[in-house]
Amino acid sequence: MATATMTIPLRTPAHSQWIISERTDLLWFTVGGAAAAYIFWALWRFAHAPLLLLVAIWAIVFDETHGFATISRTYFDAEERAKRGRWLWVSLAFFFAVGPLMILLRLGDWLELATELWGYYHIFKQHYGFMMMYKKKNRDFAPEDMKLDKAFFAVAFYYPFLTYPLHDRQAADLLPFPIQPSGARIFESTLLFSLILVTLVYIARQVQKWYEGLAVDWPKQILFATAIPVNYLLFRSRMPLLGVYAAATIFHNVQYHRLVWFYNQNKYGHDRDRARRYGLATLVNSRWLCYVAAAALYAVIFDVVPRFVLKDGVGLMNIGTRNEIIFSFFAAPGLLHYWLDGHIWKVRKDPELREYLRL
Question: What is the pTM of this model?
């Protein structure tokens, strides 16, 4: 079979290319998403809004509904069910069973720690995915930039999170081992040295590109400028752990809702013939009112209803096996969301996904 070669230009286009449009990307994927996190923090810090109220609004309006977005484009989609088949149903059964099972095995603390770690990694991977989409849109493929962008973003994004338990008692209590002061100093100093080193190299590379007249991938730089600093504020803000988790996640929620709606518009549209091809997903995902109503119902089921069946509060930290089992069952969609998302957004391996995301 004959082979063809393709030369990929290493310079970015003269004008920045966006995923949807400059205005939409700034409003949802970068500046607007970060603003939502800052507003959440400011309402707690300066307006003294009750943290539980802020978290409840975040959970119902933003977080549970973004979990529904994943369900609507997988389990509701006849084509996805046919393609992924058994994997979807086995995943569903596993994540609804694993929580209660770990509680019965007295592993609730490990379940909570794993959820926190996986949740932050999930947020990182979404930002990473946006970085790669902007690099593809702007033909930002120089080998040195590919490696440096990945290293810089990973180190800069993870530094405040990995050192968080060294500055916050609640976070430290989640760890299954005590923090030794001497080890903590070495750990934090090593990470800080790595951060400074990688940052200096990254800045030097940007100066070199400017000096050589190479175009700048501005959408990627704006993503870095919005996604990285917000974590440094939150993880050093003295806000209770639950609030930090919510504020750090709301950026991710805002991004996700808009990206999924862009995907929905391009895949399901308003063509009646598509209803037979995709099933329920067409009805729910092709009209924003149906999408919002279904997402709201999903949020009520998995966030509001548990509050009426739980006693003495919510969460794995509460005393009582009954509460822990119920909470872990209703928390299962969050874990399922992490798992599904790690597989259904692989742009390089899915040509149809590239088409629906206009890549």
Answer: 0.89
